[in-house]
From TrEMBL:
GO terms for cellular component: membrane
Family listed: Belongs to the GDA1/CD39 NTPase family.
Molecular function via GO: nucleoside diphosphate phosphatase activity
GO BP terms: nucleoside diphosphate catabolic process
UniProt organism field: Monoraphidium neglectum
Keyword Hydrolase: yes
One Pfam assignment: GDA1_CD39
Keywords, alphabetical: Hydrolase
Protein's UniProt name: Apyrase
């Protein structure tokens, strides 16, 4: 899923969700005007004229997934961007997600225990939080959720993208069990559940 980290996803969603007039975007509050920079390229959001909207933002996030790209297998076994998801039976298992899913779940209040390293939730909780956030201006969001000023304008987009990846990308139901993970326990130690760990596992599995 290279290219679908949260920072890269912001760029894709901004570009694909921008209104035809160039004066609106459903992932941003009314009055927003900013430039998002990713990989030395600027993605402008200019003079948003309508309030942000979760459903509209989720639709933009869905476009960014490139959901219909062929993965070389039966459609039911594909996730998004041409990536094989696995056998349909795997959908019966519990999913573990980390990295930006954990960060935004913590920021939005889905995770209520700040000392936890694992927390059980559902994809639907991301939708609830996104619905509450979208439409609020960045100053209000920053104050209510104690966010860094740099992240506040993108909070609606981030939460909507998380929800869309889970429900549209991986086809999980709103109430599917989901384990958010910050760290994993191994031999009496805790190890950060971040992308280098996943990359290492992927490399080792190829040996």
């Amino acid at each position: 899923y290279l290219g679908f980290g949260l920072m890269a996803a912001r760029a894709r969603v901004i570009e694909l969700g921008r209104a035809a007039t160039g004066k609106g975007h459903p992932c941003f509050a009314k009055g927003t005007s900013l430039k998002y920079t990713y990989a030395d390229k600027e993605y402008p959001v200019d003079e948003v004229v309508e309030a942000g909207d979760f459903k509209g933002c989720a639709a933009a996030a869905f476009k960014a997934l490139d959901h219909d790209k062929d993965c070389g297998a039966d459609k039911a076994a594909c996730s998004f961007s041409g990536v094989w998801r696995g056998k349909p039976a795997s959908m019966q298992r519990v999913y573990y997600v980390s990295s930006y899913f954990w960060d935004r779940a913590l920021d939005s209040g889905i995770i209520t225990d700040k000392s936890a390293i694992e927390f059980k939730t559902t994809p639907g909780e991301f939708a609830k939080r996104a619905t509450a956030v979208c439409g609020k201006d960045a100053a209000e969001v920053a104050k209510q959720y104690s966010l860094q000023e740099a992240h506040a304008p993108y909070f609606c987009l981030d939460l909507s993208f998380c929800h869309t990846v889970l429900t549209q990308g991986f086809d999980l139901a709103e109430g599917s069990p989901l384990n958010l993970v910050k760290q994993v326990r191994y031999n009496g130690q805790t190890i950060e559940a971040a992308w280098p760990l996943g990359a290492a596992i992927d490399e080792l599995s190829a040996l």
